[in-house]
Each structure stands twice: as C-alpha cells, then as structure tokens.
Task: structure prediction
Amino acid sequence: MTERLLAEFRDDRALQAGLQLVRGAGHSALEAFTPYPIEGLAEQLAQDRSMIRPVMLIGGAGTAAFALLLQWYSAVMNYPIVSGGRPLNSWQVFLLVPFEVGVFAAALAGVIAFFHSCGLPRLHDSLFAVPGFERATQDRYFLLVAAEDTSTDLRAMLRDAGALGVTEVRAP
Amino acid sequence: MSQVLIPSDPPTHRWIASSLARDVGVTQAVADPVFTSFGRTWWLALLASLPFAIWLFCAIGWLFYQGIGIWGINSTIVWGVAIANYVWWIGIGNAGTLISAMLLLTRQKWRASINRFAEAMTLFAVAIAGLMPIIHLGRPIYAYWLAPYPNTMALWPQWRSALVWDFWAIVSYLLFSILFWYVSLIPDLATMRDRTPYRAGQLIYGAFALGWRGSAREWSRLQTLHTTMAALGVPLVCSVHSIVGLDFAASLMPGWQESIFPPYFVVGAMYSGFAMVVLLAAAIRWGFGLQAIITRRHFDVMGRVLLMASIVMFYSYATEWFMGWYGGEHSDRELVRFEFTGTYAPLFWALLACNCAIPQLLWWPTARRSLPILIAIAVAINVGMWLERILIVWNTLSHGYMPSLWRTFHFTFWDWTFLIAPLGFFAFLFLLFVRVVPSVSMFDMRELSHEERAA
Result:
C-alpha cells in the first residue's frame, strides 16, 4: 500500500513550492487544503472539470419549460377562461413565472451538483483526526501526497520544501 | 457611534488595515466577537427590539381576527401601508443579493467586507416583504390558492394576474437568496467549527459546515457554483422588482400605467437597499470594532453608488412628469399637478428633498467619509424611498379618472403599527444573526489580504 502523507505549510508560496517539488520527483499530489481559494490550484492538481454548470442549465431550463407547459395546459386546455379579452394562450405574460422558478431551480440543481461532486455533506473524514488540521480553515496550508516512488524519501523532501510538520494518514 | 474614523491606511492596502492583513488577523477579528461575551449594548438592543417583534405579531393576529378595515384604507384608496411596505421591504431585500452578485461579477474586491451581512439583510427583508401581500389579502387563509395544486374545485391560478407573478417572484427569490447566502457561508462555518471553544458550537457549526475541509476541489467547485449563481442572480433580482413594478404598470390607472416602472423600481430598490447597507455597515463596524475591515474607503464607494442612484432616481421622476405632460392625457396631467400641489404635496416635496436634493451632498468627499453625515443621508434616503412608495399608491388612487371618487387616506393606529413594528422585528432578526454567524466573509477577506500584499 502506498504511503499517504499530509504536509503542513506556513503560506501559499511554500505550498506551491512543495507541490512542484513533489511532482517533479514523480510522486502524486492528491489534494491541497487552504483557508481561502487559491487560483489555479485545482488545475495544478489535475482535477477533472466539474459538471456543475451543465447540470444547472438542464435543471433550470427543464423546470422553466415545465412551468410554461403547466400554464399553457391550465389556461388553454383544462380551464379556459377569457379574461379582459386576452387570448387564452397569453404566452408573453406566461414567460414571467418560468423565468423566476427556472432561476431558482438552476440554483438548486447547482447546489445539489456541488454537494455531489465534493462528497458533501460529509459526517467525518480521516483528515479531521490529524492534529492541527483544524487550522486548514484558518491560517495553514496542507498538501496531501502519495508516495509513488520508494527510492526517494518523500518525508524528508517535504521537510526540505519547508513543511512545518508531516503526518502519515491511513485510510479509514 | 465612533465619530472620528481611523487614519488613512498605507497605500498598499486599500481595503483592509495593514495590521490585520494576515490570515490570523482576519479570522480573529471576525470570528472571535461571536464567541466572547455578548456585551451590554447587544442585550439592550435586543431588549429594545423585542417589543416591536411582539407588537408586530400581535398586530397581525388582530388583523387576521378583525380584517383589513383596521387600516385607513377605504373603497377608493384600496391599497395602503401594507403595499407601500411590501415594495419598500422588497426593495431593501433586493439590494443584498444585487450588491453581492453584481460586485462579484465585476470583480470589485471590496465587496468582501459587506456581502455577508448585505445578503442576510436580503433574507430578513424579503421575508418581511413576503408577509405584506398576505396580510393585505383580506382572506389570508386562502393565500395558498396562489399555488397550482390539484383541488376539488378544479380551479387554477389566474396566470395573467400580477398577484400570481408576485407570489412566484417572492418565493423563488427568497429561496434563491437563502441558497446563495448559505453556499458562501459554508467555508466560514467550517472556520467557526474549528475555532469554537464549545462542544455545542462544534456540533452545530459542524453540522451546518457539512464536513467542509477547504480542499482545492471544494474551493474550485464552490467558486464555479457561486459565480454562476451570481450571474443568474442579477437578472433574477432585476426581474423580481420589475414584477413589483408591473403590479402597478399592468393596471389602467393614471400615473401607474407607465413602461418606465420596472427599471425605475429596480433602481429605487438598489438605492434604498444600499442606504440600508450603509446603516448596517456602520452599526456592525461599531458594534464589533471592525474598523480595520470596513474602512472609510468602503463608505466612500458606497456614497458614490448612492449619489449615482440618486441622480438616476431624479431622472426617472422627471421622465414621469415629462411623459405625463407630453402624453397629453388630461388625467395624467392632472395627476402630476396633484402630486406637486394636492393633498399629499408636503410629503411629495419631502420625498424630493430626501431622494434628490440631500444626497447631492455626496459630491463632497468630506461628506462621503464622515460617518454622521453619511448615516444621516442614508436615513433620509430610506425615509424618502418609503414616501415614494406610499405616494405612488396614494396619489393615483386618490386622484383617479372619476372625480366623484376622489378621497384621502388617513393614518390609523394600525397603519403606524405596520410601518414601525416590522423595523423593530428586522432589527431583532439582525441582532440574532450577528451573534451566531460571522457577519463578514472571512475567506473572501483572506483572499483579499493576500492579493493586497502581493500587489
């Protein structure tokens, strides 16, 4: 089984430097944990692209189409009533409700897709047991790496890169 | 209220004081007040606002029991304070999401200091606004008839009715705002979970933080979601207040049936909402000692936005008067004359003073950077915007096509109640909010401080 190590860094530059070093030596960087979003970090970690936006488009457009169809069916087919001489299919004003509910449905679909793609809600994670990991949401920068190549000492390499501490993480 | 603002920051840090421009500094400044003692001021404020909250719910109970005749409305002026309140509150409610989303999309980094509580303001204001049409219904027990559902009467909602549009607009907007607010709150809830010294806090914040770890994957997905929601939120906000404008514009009354109403209502909403954000920012800054995070530059830029909105409002009013005259319709011209010289003329002139004249002080940088002056202007704008909404209702209904129906609205005790009590209820909710949730977005501030240091 490959060894998984969690290295703690003081700032984002040290984290980036550590990431380059680890990858250069042929090990794989699995994930980084930072107190604020660092631009481009997900791309450096070669993570797959998210499907959040397409899901939002489908959810929003689908709900809007359903709302429009419901209005058309109720106003034209099921309960036709002439009000103020307006046509039964007053589609211009029927666009208002689909827009409103469509935007909300897109947002809801996006939130669900976001949760799904990140594995949230997550009741527990093995990383929470690592001492000091609570600072990942405050002021410390963590890098999770897997040793692919046993010829180099990954732990020493991380220390040289400026890691304040290195902890071995076992899968739960 | 602190009268003297802190001295100017060094030029390298535009939006945050240098002493706090570190991850720890930001986190401590925002999170720690929530865990420390509540303080006497907070308790006094809560005790002062609690009676208003109780008063509001007693009044709603009395209204449900007695009917809407307890207000000063009559058979001519069928709309009154409840409708004006509705438009005013939803205007304030629009600003939070609009400010947050629009500033996010335009990459205005200073939004980090104000977006969180501006969005909370949105939630509370929209919830209060949503009550108003329901209590105005007359038969509030049938409010659910607005929703399409299979029923034994085989009836459907009237989709051509502005009331039905309102229902969907408010419901969609409220739920959207909750999601938009909560999504950007998750990382900060995780910070609270990891920082709280209490077991109960760990459990509660931990449950709402959903196991957030701050991984690169989570951050990039969150940002994708958040910016996409912001891009959807801006048109949604504009459509919501446009639909409120359509409540009036889709009618056939003089002074209401105007195509300018939707955009003019949207600008009005942003105007009153920004004024409310200024007031809340001043209160939070003082209450939590966040002078380093909500700097005088923030008040300066908000003052500029208010000035711009004031000019657009005046332009909208002038367009209304011009079109009333230019359209040549007798009743439209009469209505404009009635606005300036009729029964409600003193209120109308007060409106113009509050919304158009007084905010011109903001041309002077000294006025934008002086908290007392800015607060006074913000209060004036909020008063002026409420007067605008009530006068839109009163002037048209009091002076319609049929002279024999011309009547005047007279305030009753319950009109005052529904004007004042929701303000206290709003303050009550907001006080609870600032004690539980970090009122400034910490991760946005960390990002901002890193960028400012790198610059």
Observations:
- Chain B has a mean pLDDT of 88.
- Chain B has one domain: 21-146+238-454.
- Chain B is about 70% helix and 0% strand.
